[in-house]
Every structure is written in structure tokens, then in C-alpha cells.
Amino acid sequence: MKGGDNGTVTPLMKQYNAIKAKHPGALLLFRVGDFYETFGEDAIRASKILDIVLTKRGAGSTSETALAGFPHHSLDTYLPKLVRAGERVAICDQLEDPKSVKGIVKRGVTELVTPGVSFNDQVLEKRSNNYLAAVHFGKTEAGVSFLDISTGEFITAQGDKNYVGKLLQSLAPAEVLFCKREKETFVSNYGPDFRYYALEEWVFSYDFAYESLTRHFNTTSLKGYGIEGMREGITAAGTILHYLSETHHHEISHIATISRLEEDKYVWLDRFTVRNLELVYPQNQDGVPLIQILDQTTTPMGARLLKKWVVLPLKDVVQIRRRLDTVEALTNHTELLDALYLHLKQINDLERLISKVAVRRVNPRELVQLAKALDAIQPIKKLLAASAIPALVKLADQLAPCDGLREEIKNILKPDAPMLTNQGNMINDGVNEELDELRKIAFSGKDYLAQLQQREVKNTGISSLKIAYNKVFGYYLEVTHAHKDKVPASWIRKQTLVNAERYITEELKTYEEKILNAEDRIYAIEFGLFNELVLQAMDYVGQVQQNAKVIAVIDCLSSFAGIAVAGNYVKPEVSDSHVLDIRKGRHPVIEKQLPLGEEYVPNDIFLDNEEQQVIIITGPNMAGKSALLRQTALIVLMAQIGCFVPAEAARIGVIDKIFTRVGASDNLSKGESTFMVEMTETASILNNLSDRSLVLMDEIGRGTSTYDGISIAWAIVEHLHNHPKFRAKTLFATHYHELNQLAEDLTRVKNYNVSVKETGGKILFMRKLVEGGSEHSFGIHVAQMAGMPNSVVLRADEIMHHLEKEKVSEQAPKQRMKTAPKNNYQLSMFELQDPQLLRIKELMEQLDINTITPVEALLKLNELKLLLQDKGEVVR
After folding, report:
1. 678-710: per-residue pLDDT in tens?
2. For a tag site, which of 168, 615, 648, 851 has the least CB within 10 Å?
3. pTM reported for the whole predicted model
4. Which of the four CATH numbers 3.40.50.300, 2.60.40.10, 3.90.45.10, 3.40.50.1820 does domain 573-775 have?
């Protein structure tokens, strides 16, 4: 792009440099003719991301620069790849027609597309929100705001840093804004994994933000939105509006309201719990999150709403019961449920379609889809209204018919309208007289000329009359000399030939102008009619957004009803009591993954604040302790989002906080050990307890020495039981059997174990929770089942038996370890503490070699062989 070898800069390059300087952090797509070009570092990045050829301009000169580009019509193909790679992309277009300009064409950035600000269907995930978030750290609290520009949803919240972190993890924004000087604070609190963009400090001014919001909503205050006193929340929200302006997004009338995300309205799920319970995302690549089981929604709006419900369970009993009652009504009317499902399937993404209307980015095909979606709402409204179920009738009343918009779109646009407005053929016949006439001229020209020729033959009596065309004077009438005396006086002679003469008429010249300009005029008329239709549709933005919200709720509740029927779920009894009573509960995810024919083993859980506040669960690894903990939390969570639960019966006294410390979650890349992470998460739990908390702890203390681990676990149980203010309901799974002694001293601590059946040296996992503590961990059996070498298993068994014998002595632990048996590789097999081998020893000792007959000897030998085979099977 630069000039010659002397290093002079061309006017085009000067223009590029000036525009690039205004957007230093963005990858600039610079329109040159029919291509979007990138230069320098931008070109190197673009070529790698898009896999396009990287070339050089001015190779070998001092002004050599990297160059990479693609055709302008491929923008929708390449732009999403750049944005998904985390790039902020500035699209620089030609603002003038190059044909009408001498010299350099005026150019400017028409849009700045970022991961968090996009309307492109290829960038957006249909069933997930694409949030842009802004975080502002105040003196005592932090503010956070979320906007999905593709739907118009705008929310803000305020609280401590933990609450903001929880919302960031739960809502998973595509891009986060914060102040440059707060980068270290943000990264240290929430990690470096978010895509973020740092703004100047002046943007985070409360007064500036307040004015931006009131100007946008055309109000004098923010009291009507319930956020008036949220200083940090308002600052974060105002930052988002500023960012939209900076990225050239000025048509944002669809962002019609802002709502407050109230901390005390929803169940507290800290970021560890959201991750540990795998609510939305699995921890392992092959894992299945809860949302995958619950999400049977058919509309994009429903899918997006369900994700919010899952990470924001309700605490209000009245709201929870309202949802549960609606789900119950749908489960009792399966014909209605099936009918709703059929109509919901016809509804496209109402939210995003109407947002595109508001920002005037909608195409003809999308408007047709909008009309079809509104058509499908009519039978849904009738079905719900006719159900006579109060909750469903109320939903029906909230659906707006939008008849005017539906009819207007269907009257004006063809059902098979194209995606691009410049392709033509999108407006119905009969809408505009001039358009109909031009179409006849453009697409039925020969017929028109034939009709004109026949009319003139009839009028003049010239049977040999012909109509033809040439580039010199266009369309003409040709008359042989034999009939030239019949030519009307109004005809104008243009050319004389040997055998004929050529004439033109006013009608023919008028037609010629029409046919030559018909296509351009057709495009202009169609484009004008389409734009008028979009302007009319903008009047319905609020109504369609309301419809989208109601349809999303109907879709979610229908999904709950569908899975309740299919999965044999029951309606939980939710109240303000302090009792958690689950009868024959099942894990909603695991039971769906079981092999065909295998049934999930259900379990009962009872917790309250008076008699059974803490349950200590012992049992071997792999017996199902972790699954039991998780299923309890998931059943509570499902109940409080308004979903039926996998159980025979469930009484849920509303839980306000769910804490989990389950599974290893090392953060070795940050230099934190398993134990450090475990203690950090446990500390967070103990410091944030409430009287309605549900605490799930799995194998606390296993990351350190046995005695440290037992001591810490012991102290934690005591703290939870003896807390002066709160009696948090707790499930405490452990392999430290010593903790069973706590039940003797602490009245609300009870011992349970996940039962195991031991037969012939083998163990069977019964996966049933029974009262009482277990005495063995069966760790060596599990090691054996995992394929541990037989020599290691037998040696471990020998040491364990020795330690159990020594345990009754009064020696200190270190002294007892000194007396552990030495590993003697010459030991006979009968010295090993192995049940099968000891049985063989007993048989050998019983034999009397002097009296045994040959046949008896052979039978005994066969018996010994069978015992050894059994031993081999156990080892394998």
C-alpha cells in the first residue's frame, strides 16, 4: 500500500494510517474496490486465523508491508472466524461511489464488531446469550452489568467481589470491559480466561454513566427501573452504553429497559458450586451437564432462558410453586403439551429477529420468518386460553397478536423472499402499480413488443410491419417501401434502407427508456417498499419482545413437563420449613447414562435443623458417596427452578445457599496445590454460612497427611454443628472412619454408610445409604479391581493387617510404623495375608499323606487348582 522505493506514502496509505490510528486495538478490514484488505501485523494475524494467502506489497523496498485480503462478498464467511478467535474487527467501507469521485474515495469505519457486540448469526450461538459485560470496582462493592445486544436484554447488579465473580461465571460473557487501572484487580479475582477490553478511567464516572442511561431511556431518573441507588451498577451499565457508541452501534432502540439482578432473590451458588455440580458446562470433555438433561426446549428464547433459570434458582416459595403448578397442569394434560410442542417448533428466534428490525439489519427472508413465528403464536394463545388453567390463561393474556405486522409482511413480501435486498423479486405482485408495470416490461418485453406490433398492423394495415432493435437508435418500426404511404404522420423517420424505412414513435421511445431502466428502477422501488415495511415493523418491537419473553417461559415449563413425564419425576413439596426430605431420590444425569436394563439405585436423605443437621457418610471409594452428594444438591436446585424431581417424593424447605466441596480441582498452573484449593473453597463455605444453607463436602483433608486430614475434617464438622447462629444442613462424605465418633458427642450429627457386600474376598457396591458408620474403606479391594499388580495388592493387605493389630497398642504412630513388617521377597505364599491362600494352607494341613488314596489325592489336587483359579480371577 505504500509508495515507491523512496518510501513516500501514497494518499491511500495516508488514509489507511489515519483510520488505523483511531482503532489501534482492532483488526482493520479496509475496503479497496471489491476486496477487504488487511496490512502489516493485521495481515499476519488475519492470514493465520482465516487461512488466506499472506503476500507483500512493495517487496524489497523500504516500504514493504504484509498484505492479506478477501472478496467483499465473503465478509459473512470470514468475519465470524475473526470474532470467534477473539479479535475486535473494525470494518472500514467506501462511503462514496468510486465512479463518481475523482481521486481518493472517502472511507470510514461503519462498524466495530467485537466478541461481545455482534448481530451476525455465524458469530452468535442460537441457544446461548452473547453477553457483553462491564465491571466496576467501587470502594466497598463492585458493580457488574450485562447486555446482549442481539436480544436487547440489559441487566445490572451490585455486591461484593464474590457475587460479581459468581455472575460472571454463571452468565459467561463473551467480552468483559473494565478500567485499565483495575486490570490487576480483575485478573487476580476472576482469572485471565475472559476476553476483555480495558477502557480509560474517565469512562467509569458515575455522573457520566447516569446521564448516558437517562438520555438513552429518555427519563429524568432511574427509579422506575429499581436501580436508582446502585452507584457501582449504574457505572457499569453506563460503560456499556458508551462502548456501543464507540463501536458505532447507534441504532439501539430495542434496548428498552434495564433490570436489576437482586442478590437476595436467587439461591447463592458460588463459582465453585456452579463448576462442581456441572450445571451448564461439564468438567470433563465427555461429561454431561445438568442443562443437557433439562433442556428439551424447542425455541432459542426458551433455551437461553432455561440456562438463566438453572444458574439463578428461586428462593421465593410463591414463585416456585407457581412454576410447579403450571408444570403439573401440563403433565396432567399431555394432549395440550403435545399440541404446544408442535406450534413451538414453528417459532424462530423472535428476540433476535425483532432486534435486527430495531437496528435495521433485518433481511427480507428474516421478516418472512418473523411473520411465520407470529402466525404460530395465535394457536398457542388459543390453546392456553381454552385450557381453563389459571396460570396458562394468564400467559395467554400476555401474548400480543401483532395482527397488523403479520398481515403487512405477508401482503408485501413474497413467501420465498431472498436474503439480500439487492437480489430483487422480494415484493408481491399487486403491491405497487409501477413495480408491476416495470416487471412486465423487464420480464415480458417480447410479449409487449408483439402486442404493440399487432396493434400497429391492425391500425395501419401494414401487414409486413416489424419491430427491431439496434444500438444506434434503439427500438424502431421497419416498413417496406411498398407500404410507406400507409405510415402515420406521427411516426418519425430515422433511417432509409434499400428496401425499407425505419421509424420511431413516442410510445416506442417511452417503452425503450422503461425497459432499459426497468431493472434499476425495480430495485429502487422494492428497496423503498422494504424499508417502509421495516419502519412499520419497528412500531411493534416492544410487543414482539414481550411475546418472545412469554414464549420462552411457556417453552421452559413445557420442557419441564416433558422430562417429568418421560423420566417419571414427581412434584416436590416446597415450603418455608427447615426440612429436607427426599424419598428414593435419583441422580438426574447418571440415571440417563446407565446401560440399557440397569436401574439407578435410589436413596433417601433427611436433614433438618433440630435432629439430623449433619450426616457423616462413610464407605469405600467408588461406592457412590459423591453421586449421592451431587444428586441431593441437584434435586434441591431442580425443585427451586420449578422443575419436577427424580424421586418418589420430596419435601424441600427452601435453601438459600448451596455450597459444594467435591472432587479435585487443582490449580497447579497458578502454583496452588490440591490441598490449597480445597482449603480455599472450604474457607469460603465456612465464612458464608446461613441458616438455610446446604453444604456438601466430599473427602475433606485428603490432600494432606492422614492425621492433619482427620483433624481438619473433625474441626469442620464441629464448627458446622456448633455454629452460634446457623445450622447449615450438611452432607459430609469421608473415608476417615474416626469421624464416626463425633455422633456420640454431637446430638445433630448422624452416621450413615454406603453399603458394600463382601463375599469370598470380593466386594459388591450396593450403592444404598444405610444408618451407621462403616469400619473398612476397602481401598485395597478397589486397587485390586483397578488392575493394580498382584504383588502390590498383597503387600498392602499384609501391611494393613499389621497396622490394624498394632492399632490397639499404646505406641505412638511413628513407633508403630517402625514395627511394620519388612518386605521379604522370599516369603512363602502361606505367610501372606490372603483369604484364598490361607484356605489352601488349611486344606494342605488337613491332608494325611500316609492314608490318602491316589483317587482322593487327585480330587484334592483338583480342589486346590480351582481355588488357585478363583484367586487368579480376583487378581485379574
Report:
1. 788 888 888 889 999 999 998 887 766 677 888
2. 851
3. 0.81
4. 3.40.50.300
